């Protein structure tokens, strides 16, 4: 059997032994106190008898038969008061009166002995020897009538000191017990001297000897003083409940009894002439050797028991330390109580929970350390567990000093190997957070049900296989079926039969995703009314994690009215688009097609507006050799931008026909835009002079013109920096518009455009213009700038720069102007 297996058995056995030893220990201490009181009482009686003998003249009360010395009157008084002092010291309960009287009588005894000792030391007579009675006895040696013996005086002084120390609880126990042994020894010397007829043991030198009654009283007083504190000091070692105490008491009795008996037997043999002194001494030594040899083996057995008990105690202490460490590191409250409800062990959590230190808990009952209600409940639970004889567990709410807490209490008995319970162990786990979490889960479930029922749309919850596990009341209104009747059926049963495969595939594909996100579907989904008719629905689907399972929350809404409204809205939108398209073309007009100046243009409306925007362009014949070309962009979209565009196109056309140079045309348009509220317009105007092979250019914040000259790469034309129209303050003059005149060789091509062609989110507009230039060069390289070539180049530019024209969110204008070569068509007549 291993140590771990033996630990519970040994712990129970030791606990049972300790419980059994407690009454024995208490009875032993009570017996020792009783012996001490009896000894003190008998010593006081001997002293009183001596006084009676002096007062009545009865010699036998003063002198024992066969003894030569009588008890002096002063010695009788001292023995009487010293016996009374020790009798009061050992009395229970201790009161102030008894302590005071005990100290006073002890001091009186010490005073009598001390004054007599002073007389012996100084040779002076203090007049105390015959203070009470006259002594006419025959003097012995240098004795004085009525004076007690020297050893008696010394014993009384030591006895008074022992009694005083025994009555003072603050002093160590040895201060009274060591003098008590000295008194006992002086008394035993007198008794040994009488027993062995050795007068030398009765006195010091030739002085008066100690009376036999006095020696007997001193022995009793020594015993009384020694046992006055039986649980402390030397007496505590002798009276302890363990095997060492029992061994000590036996050895003490043997030492006091056996040697005197052996000595008496040897002397009797010598007196009878059976053997001589030398043989008697040898027999005495041999007897002592035999006795003490016989004593060795019981002592060894007791010592072995002590060693085993010590080892078991050390092992148990170690186990208790480990158990206490385990208990202290346990987050739960752990306690051990005896069957009467006294706490034997508690852990740190117990101290924290009750707010009491361990020292104030151990050895006390529930009612002593706990609130009354909590203590009664705890004791009732202990009794129930003991009655059942098995572990019990319960969950309850307790009002602890730090507030009410929900706890899980486990109680189980600790039993001896025979199965008899000797203690109760309890483990109290704080489950407040868990109980609160469970309550919150229940409340959350109730809130979830309330939320589910309050949803305006039919809501279904399905498992990962599409089986309905919960439905709200709105499904009855939408599908004509009871919510309870839908639980356990397939969600696709609510879909028209021809469409179930597609609906099921969509749900399964959604649930197979590793992290499905909420999704709304309203295209091609249909539900089934209770009468069998189908209707379009919008389905919102999201995932729900419940008990390690992915579930789907499906919300279904009837969108029949929405579909009808969408159809009507689409019809109206198409009508509005046709109107806007007509308006846009009427405002923009159709630019002039000049046979001597081939052009190609593209206009793409924004998909966010019904074909209405603020871009425009115009080709204006001015005279025989000159042609005006204008491209503009009104910021914004819609009818307002289109209306401003129409006005600016008309104004620019009129100003150009008047022959004003480009800078003055921009100034005029700027003044026109300045009269409009919150308008911003970019514009570029150039005049092509075919005879002079040059052009004049002015820009109002517009994107640069890209030119492709013969035998040269396409590039941006340098243009004076100008601000957009509508920025200048008319009253302050503003920034003037500059113009530039540059050569334009025959066979050149110019590309004018708005920002919708080159500006896209996430791209660099400068890079886009470079792409435009490279694409223009690639499209026209080696080809004359005739209308067909320019038309193909325009398509290529739009396709390259705007791959997804159906999703473009800005209107786009592109104008390509070609200058024929030397052999091309001539200008107007």
Automatic annotation (TrEMBL):
Protein name in UniProt: SpoIIE family protein phosphatase
SUPFAM superfamilies: PYP-like sensor domain (PAS domain)
Superkingdom of the organism of origin: Bacteria
Coiled-coil regions listed in the entry: none
Molecular function in Gene Ontology: phosphatase activity
Sequence ranges assigned to domain PAS in this UniProt record: 319-367, 444-495
Presence of keyword Cell membrane: no
Lineage of origin: Bacteria, Bacillati, Actinomycetota, Actinomycetes, Kitasatosporales
InterPro entries: Bact_Sigma-Reg, PAC, PAS, PAS-assoc_C, PAS-like_dom_sf, PAS_4, PPM-type-like_dom_sf, PPM-type_phosphatase-like_dom
Entry-linked PANTHER family: STAGE II SPORULATION PROTEIN E, STAGE II SPORULATION PROTEIN E-RELATED
Transmembrane segments: 34-55, 67-88, 108-128, 178-198, 210-229, 250-267, 279-302
Organism listed in the record: Streptomyces actinomycinicus
Residue intervals of the PAC domain: 519-571
Keywords: Hydrolase, Membrane, Transmembrane, Transmembrane helix
